[in-house]
Amino acid sequence: MDELAWTTPSIEALRGFQSLPFKGSDTSWVNLYLLRRKYKLEIAVHDGVLFRYYHGKTPNRQGYGFPLSPVAFDADKVFRLLRRDAESRGLVRFCLCDDGQKEIVSRHFDIEWDSDRGDDDYIYERGKWIDFAGKNYHHLRNRINLFNRLYPGATYSPIDDSQRLEDALHVAQAWQEEHEGLPEMPAADLEMEQSCIADAAEHWRELGMIGGVLYVDGAPVATTMASPLSTDGVDFHFDKAVGPFAAAGATVVSRRHFAASGMAAGRPFLNLEEDVNIPGLRQSKETYRPAVKLSKHHGGLSAC
């Protein structure tokens, strides 16, 4: 009888799942690797299908993720495997399922679904970020104009060598120090994020990471660390700006440069991931006018 052999995510095990027909940030093979410790993530690969199990601290990060494959799979066979595995765990739970995935899972399990607005992925049209044209982007254009007036010599460079990567890490570290002690930023979460950023930097080329750094007078003030997602998108894993430069609009300037660069060529969508119910983060992501807010669902029932 087939059984799933669970293990900790590794780059080698995940390589075959770099291009998937899904837009959710949870389906990014890079995220599966970087977040393996945060969610005590287990994976199993069986007949070309990637199975996931999350051991997060909250119900929306507990249970099976939707099975992933670059090609269509035999759903009856896949969910029979999951049912047997769930019986051994004594519980059927799913998390991070978008609307279509939820519908498929519901054909095989009578899940009591729930959702959390903070789990929605914010997905944007990259082309609209290049010039931020139109009245909907008036505020962002004002931010860009302010930044350019204050820092007319600012430059942007792709992360294509070790020095640029060190500069990106410098921004990330400075951002962490600025946010230490804030109630919405628990120390454990900040430390975990820095660990994930360090992993991304250490395995930059192996993970196919892309990104850039914004400089003012030669000093790094903002950075984006991203990777290709699905066949038509880019996932923003870490997106930081620091000090008075952040207040002046460094984030929007950096994002505009990234959108206009060749790094995202051929991929029309940018995924800024979730707002995790942080009001300021939600307001910021809404300001950039998402084309889609991809809902995620979670739920479970007792295995029988």
Characterise the protein shown here.
Strands 7-8-9-10-11-6-12 form a seven-stranded mixed β-sheet, sandwiched between helices. Strands 1-2-3 form a three-stranded antiparallel β-sheet, with no helix packed on it. By secondary structure, it is an alpha+beta fold. α7 (162-179) packs antiparallel against α8 (187-202). The protein has eleven helices and 13 strands. The protein folds into two domains: 11-119 and 296-301, 3-Layer(aba) Sandwich (Aminopeptidase); 121-273, Gcn5-related N-acetyltransferase (GNAT) (Aminopeptidase), CATH 3.40.630.
CATH-derived architecture of the largest domain: 3-Layer(aba) Sandwich
Anisotropy-based shape: elongated
Within CATH, the superfamily of the largest domain carries the name Gcn5-related N-acetyltransferase (GNAT)
Query: Distance N terminus to C terminus?
Result: 19 Å
Query: Structural class of the secondary structure composition?
Result: alpha+beta
Q: What integer is the average pLDDT?
A: 95
SSE sequence, one letter per element: HHEEEHEHEEHHEHHEEEHHEHEE
Q: What is the CATH topology descriptor of the largest domain?
A: Aminopeptidase
Report the strand count: 13
Described by strand count, sense and barrel closure, the largest sheet is: 7 strands, mixed
Number of helices: 11
| Approximate strand percentage | 15-25%
How many distinct domains?
A: 2
Strand sequence of the main sheet, in spatial order? 7-8-9-10-11-6-12
Radius of gyration: 20 Å
User: Percent helix among the residues?
Assistant: 25-40%
CATH class of the largest domain: Alpha Beta
In terms of per-residue confidence, which ranges show pLDDT below 50 for 5 or more consecutive residues?
Answer: none
